[in-house]
Design brief:
Layout (H helix, E strand, L loop, with lengths): L2 H39 L3 H14 L6 H14 L3 H14 L6 H9 L11 E6 L7 E10 L3 E10 L2 E13 L2 E5 L4 E6 L4 E5 L2 E13 L2 E13 L2 E8 L3 E9 L2 E11 L1
Antiparallel strand pairs: 1-2, 1-12, 2-3, 3-4, 4-5, 5-6, 7-8, 8-9, 9-10, 10-11, 11-12
Helix pairs in contact: 1-2, 2-3, 3-4, 4-5
């Protein structure tokens, strides 16, 4: 065989090896992301986040790296691992400024866990005795940005509507403010846990773990206790869901009033 032909074959062999290596690592990266997605669907969150983080740190130029960073932050935030979540979101913000997840990641880097911005459009609350037959509140989220959430609250006694009120959550610095035509109050203050005074009431927040309501079981929930004179009220919030339960407290005994029965 001529020397020139051997040299050409060596070049082709070298190119083939490079292509094989690129395809091999591409395939490996794809498998990592697929494993992350499967584990996430199976709700094996601690395992899923390891694969998502592995994917974006080892493949920062991949077109799905921003998604993997976003999912890493989302999972860590839902598990109240805020120090890790903030690193995930900060990586996305610094590395992928044009990502479609940029604005949400910027929000979540400051408000972790997210107890106020719901991904769903409607929440249905019912009294905890009849699950809505006696009393119901339907909350429709009409307009949502990462600085303001407008919603309509309709309250029913049986089938009769007794009120309809437009409200909004305003995200202002470290404060989450609930505002209506009649009142404006700070309902959550970051970082968590926290204590604050608002007009004639005092508030205390803490993460309390799992809470079960008619709509399901939620982990890493936030409890905000409001004290107004001798009256004590507790509102519970779940990550990425929002308010899920309202209770009254009297002599250290807590009685459920309204709870989330479904959301869509």
């Amino acid at each position: 065989m001529p020397i020139q032909s051997i040299q050409i074959n060596k070049k082709k062999f070298g190119i083939g090896i490079c292509v094989f290596i690129l395809l091999f690592f591409s395939s490996c990266a794809s498998n990592v992301l697929e494993n992350a997605e499967k584990l996430y669907q199976q709700k094996r969150l601690p395992e899923a986040v390891i694969y998502y983080e592995k994917y974006y740190t080892e493949n920062p130029k991949s077109e799905k790296a921003d998604y993997a960073a976003y999912m890493s932050g989302l999972i860590n935030s839902s598990m109240a691992n805020c120090s890790k979540a903030i690193k995930n979101f900060e990586f996305l913000i610094k590395t992928y400024p044009k990502s479609k997840y940029y604005e949400e990641s910027y929000f979540r880097a400051f408000y972790c866990p997210n107890y106020i911005y719901p991904k769903h459009k409607t929440s249905y609350f019912g009294d905890s005795k009849s699950y809505g037959k006696n009393a119901m509140e339907i909350v429709n989220f009409n307009y949502k940005t990462f600085s303001q959430i407008d919603f309509l609250s309709r309250v029913y006694a049986g089938k009769k509507r007794i009120s309809a009120q437009k409200k909004k959550y305003i995200i202002n610095g470290v404060n989450i403010v609930e505002k209506s035509d009649y009142a404006s109050n700070i309902i959550i203050k970051y970082p968590i846990p926290n204590e604050w005074n608002e007009k004639n009431a005092s508030y205390k927040s803490e993460i309390v773990g799992k809470i079960s309501v008619k709509a399901g079981e939620f982990d890493n929930c936030l409890r905000v206790i409001q004290k107004n004179g001798e009256a004590l009220t507790a509102n519970y919030y779940a990550p990425d869901i929002g308010r899920i339960l309202t209770s009254s407290i009297f002599r250290d005994k807590e009685t459920r009033i309204m709870e989330l029965i479904k959301y869509e």
